[in-house]
Design a protein that fits this description.
The strands form three sheets. The protein has a five-stranded parallel sheet, with helices on both faces. The radius of gyration is 30 Å and the shape is elongated. The chain folds into three domains: 91 residues, 3-Layer(aba) Sandwich (Rossmann fold); 79 residues, Helix Hairpins (Orthogonal Bundle), CATH 1.10.287; 154 residues, Heat Shock Protein 90 (2-Layer Sandwich). Helix content is 45%, strand content 17%. A hairpin with a 5-residue loop joins β11 and β12. It binds adenosine-5'-diphosphate (ADP). Adenosine-5'-diphosphate binds next to α7 and α8.
Length: 366
């Protein structure tokens, strides 16, 4: 769709002494002109500086209600005008964007049409953008539903496989030869791993739909809880975890806990042979916080640094390291739900720094 696909409508709110009839005539060859004198549904509004105050509140309402779709308002400034008009700043994202253009009388038609065309193209682009955003949301939603349904429905047959394998093991374990025993063990191990993956996928598909409210959350408390949950692993690896004082953010405490848990657990897990040292740092950068989890572990090859955030992407076999490959995909989804980004910087053999951003609590959400 582009701006020439349909005739665009302009509502003329110019008064009689603003040369209403002449402006109407000028426009009607090019646009559908609405002449109602109360603000209706149009693509663009033309007022003059005398009628502007009468329509101001209705126009404002229209602009605000349609936000983020752009509704341009053009003021025709008459020669005798003494009114001060200020143009909306096009860089400003928040409504009200009220006066988008001022055209001086007597009207120079090419100038007026050029300006209207620019504004209407912008409106058309904002409509198209909204359309694509809606489509994207819908397709995301159906993918989520698919992942949810698939993982949910796979649970039952998997449970059956696991329990029959266990039954065979319990009942005939003594009678089978060693090789069969080993095969059954592999099969049980495979079923267990598959359960882990299915549970992870279920969790992944619920991040957006079943996430809790975002509330003011102290990340120091979150980290404290995660340390307690990971205490066994910390002791086992004799890991040292240090932390800056962390900020309060607008977040879902359970999901933020999960985020820290996955990152810290990986930082300990992929530490190589040495005792892991992990640092959590926070740095303010404009309207957001950057939180980093820094380890001194095995590091990640630059070629793999993007794909590890995808579902089920792992860089190691199960014999080397256990895991389902869903942890970082969950982290990414959680961070994105909070309006942030996540990435890793690393040199193989020289540790990794996972950094994610979260909007600062005193900054407006975009
Ligand atoms: P999992 O740990 O269950 O395999 P993740 O999604 O958490 O899944 O991680 C994906 C892969 O990224 C891991 O298998 C590992 O190879 C790599 N990885 C994650 N964190 C680190 C880290 N701190 N240092 C080195 N490699 C890491």
């Amino acid at each position: 769709m582009n701006s020439s696909d349909r005739q665009q409508t302009i509502q003329l709110l110019v008064g009689e002494d603003g040369n209403r009839a002449a402006v109407r005539e000028l426009l009607s060859g090019h646009y559908d002109v609405i002449t109602d004198q109360s603000v209706t549904d149009a693509d663009c509004y033309l007022v003059d500086d005398h009628t502007f105050p009468d329509h101001h509140s209705d126009l404002l309402e229209r602009v605000e209600q349609n936000y983020p779709v752009f509704c341009p308002v053009v003021v025709i400034r008459r020669e005798d005008s003494s009114r001060q008009l200020t143009l909306a700043n096009p860089g400003e994202r928040e409504p009200p964007l009220l006066v988008n253009e001022i055209v001086d009388a007597p009207i120079d038609p090419p100038v007026l049409f050029r300006r209207l065309d620019t504004l209407l193209t912008r409106r058309q682009q904002s409509l198209e953008l909204r359309h694509y955003i809606t489509q994207l949301k819908e397709s995301n939603k159906s993918l989520e539903q698919f992942a949810y349904a698939a993982s949910h429905d796979l649970q039952e047959p998997l449970r059956m496989i696991s329990s029959y394998l266990q039954l065979i093991e319990q009942r005939y374990g003594n009678e089978l030869d060693e090789e069969v025993d080993e095969f059954i063990e592999f099969a049980i191990d495979g079923a267990d791993r598959m359960r882990g993956m299915i549970d992870g996928l279920l969790e992944y598909s619920r991040i957006d739909t079943e996430g809790g409210q975002l509330t003011e959350t102290d990340l120091n408390d979150v980290l404290e809880d995660v340390r307690a949950d990971l205490q066994m692993k910390i002791n086992e690896h004799e890991a040292t975890i240090t932390s800056d004082s962390l900020p309060r953010v607008e977040g879902d405490p359970d999901q933020l806990r999960q985020l820290f848990q996955n990152l810290l657990s990986n930082a300990i897990e992929y530490s190589g042979d040495d005792q892991p040292t992990v640092a959590v740092e926070a740095e303010r950068s404009g309207a957001e916080w950057q939180i980093s989890v820094i380890d001194d572990g095995i590091g990640i090859d630059p070629d793999d640094q993007e794909r590890i955030f995808e579902v089920f992407q792992r860089l190691h076999s199960h014999d080397e390291y256990e895991g389902t490959g869903i942890g970082l995909a969950l982290c990414k989804r959680i961070v994105e739900r909070h309006g942030g980004r996540i990435w890793v910087e690393s040199e193989p053999g020289d540790g990794s720094t996972f950094t994610f951003t979260l909007p600062a609590i005193d900054a407006p959400r975009g």
